[in-house]
Amino acid sequence: MKVILQKDVLNLGDAGDLKEVADGYARNFLIPRRLAVRANDGNTKVALHQKRLADLKREKRTKVMKDLSASIEGKTYEVKVKVGENDKLFGSVTANDIVLAIKKTGVEIDKRKLDLGEPLKALGEFKIKVRLAEGVAPQILVKVVGEA
């Protein structure tokens, strides 16, 4: 059965794609969950139009993210944290702390875009990847500095 995907489906395709799938998969999974519709002439034209709009939107977003990437790429951001004896941190530096340091320079970034892996629990410099969009992932340098 030919279907037009309404949403991105893992291991099948992106929204707007025309796919040939098993009848049972389409009837029992894709169509009831509104992930796809049965392909016919009218639906195909609408799907192609939606795909073009989605591509334009994605290109525009990527362009904006590349501009944002150029403004933060390679810069150093300083995060001050309280430390105790032997420069041991009280707590850790989280994505939210880093976003606040970036915000002081006038750039807004969502904390979910930062790829920390795990919170920073030591003083020093750390390279952090910022996943802005597909193919746009600048690296920033975060300097964790202690204050007594």
TrEMBL record:
State the UniProt keywords alphabetically: Ribonucleoprotein, Ribosomal protein, RNA-binding, rRNA-binding
UniProt keyword rRNA-binding present:
yes
User: Which GO-annotated molecular functions does the record name?
Assistant: rRNA binding; structural constituent of ribosome
Database matches in InterPro entries: Ribosomal_bL9 (IPR000244), Ribosomal_bL9/RNase_H1_N (IPR009027), Ribosomal_bL9_bac/chp (IPR020594), Ribosomal_bL9_C (IPR020069), Ribosomal_bL9_C_sf (IPR036791), Ribosomal_bL9_N (IPR020070), Ribosomal_bL9_N_sf (IPR036935)
- Please state every residue range assigned to the domain named Ribosomal protein L9: 13-40
Presence of the UniProt keyword Ribosomal protein in the record? yes
Q: In Gene Ontology terms, what is a biological process of this protein?
A: translation
- Source superkingdom: Bacteria
Q: Which HAMAP family match?
A: Ribosomal_bL9
What this protein is reported to do is described as: Binds to the 23S rRNA.
Q: What is this protein called in UniProt?
A: Large ribosomal subunit protein bL9
Q: Which organism is it from?
A: Leptospira idonii
Upper classification of the source organism reads: Bacteria, Pseudomonadati, Spirochaetota, Spirochaetia, Leptospirales
Give the gene that encodes this protein.
Answer: rplI
